[in-house]
Amino acid sequence: MDTAAERELRVIVFPGAFNWPIWIAQAKGFFKRHNLAVAITPTPNSVYQLTHLIAGGFEIAHTALDNLVAYVEGQTQVPVPGKPDLIAFMGGDNGLLRLVTKPGIRSYTDLRGKQLSVDALTTGYAFVLKRILEDNGLREDDYELVSVGGGIERWQALQNEGGPVGTLLMTPFELLAKDKGFTLLSDVSRELGRYQGLIGAANRAWAAAHADELTGYIRAYLAALAWLYDPANRDEALGLLTSNSNIPAELAGQVYDVLVDPTQGIAPAATLDVTGIETVLSLRHRYSSSAMKSANPARYFDLSYYNKARDVI
Fold this sequence. Notes:
The chain has 13 helices and 10 strands. The protein has 313 residues and is of the alpha/beta class. It has 2 domains: 7-93 and 196-311, D-Maltodextrin-Binding Protein, domain 2 (3-Layer(aba) Sandwich), CATH 3.40.190.10; 97-192, 3-Layer(aba) Sandwich (D-Maltodextrin-Binding Protein, domain 2). Strands 2-1-3-10-4 form a 5-stranded mixed beta sheet, sandwiched between helices. Strands 7-6-8-5-9 form a 5-stranded mixed beta sheet. The longest helix has 18 residues, at 211-228. The radius of gyration is 19 Å and the shape is globular.
């Protein structure tokens, strides 16, 4: 590391254990090695996150690829000035999605005539939920989707009396739900097949003008992933998880077993799954009320910064 002044990066994320690599990079000094001071802001929902990213309030967002595609394509709940030009610069996970319902809901048939919650009606994982429900015999007029917000907000709404009876949750929320007697109706990630969930996103113009900062961020993130996947660091990693979240210590080991697993958890090298991106685009083609401008996955990512970061690791 040189002695240059630290450069601040404002990063907006959904609350959740999938931010583990960021917490590690902060705690272990991996960001500082690249002269970066990373400030993390939790978002209540995708609308807040993406509109503020596009407006320049944040440099980086960790968000669902579907959110990025929706804003680039103009398929959003709220109008956005100009023409957003966002890129995914690295991957993250396959969504880690589970369909969780109230204890009295034990089958898809039980969902008829009920409300289910999503982050936003046209972005995030709303179309994943529609696909899973359709595959299990439910038409769109068999249920109602309501916009509630991010994972924490949906989990809180699910615990309230009345209101939505089901939602898609990701680790650790489905483990918290199971511990409280809620029904894990489906492991959506396995039912859906390959799907690109979380990604690192930025405005294309900002990335081009700040390539050193973005490359340094990726290097630090990848170093944190390597550290997390080293079994020798398990106990310390669990301590960082519980100190940065509300996850009970007794569930932390279960969270580790899900997320620190290259077959189902956080991608160990933050790779993008192009086949998974195609699934995202296919669902948007199928369920969006407006036409897609492009079916080419390459429109939505730029791996030049990731590849440069990998070259020196």
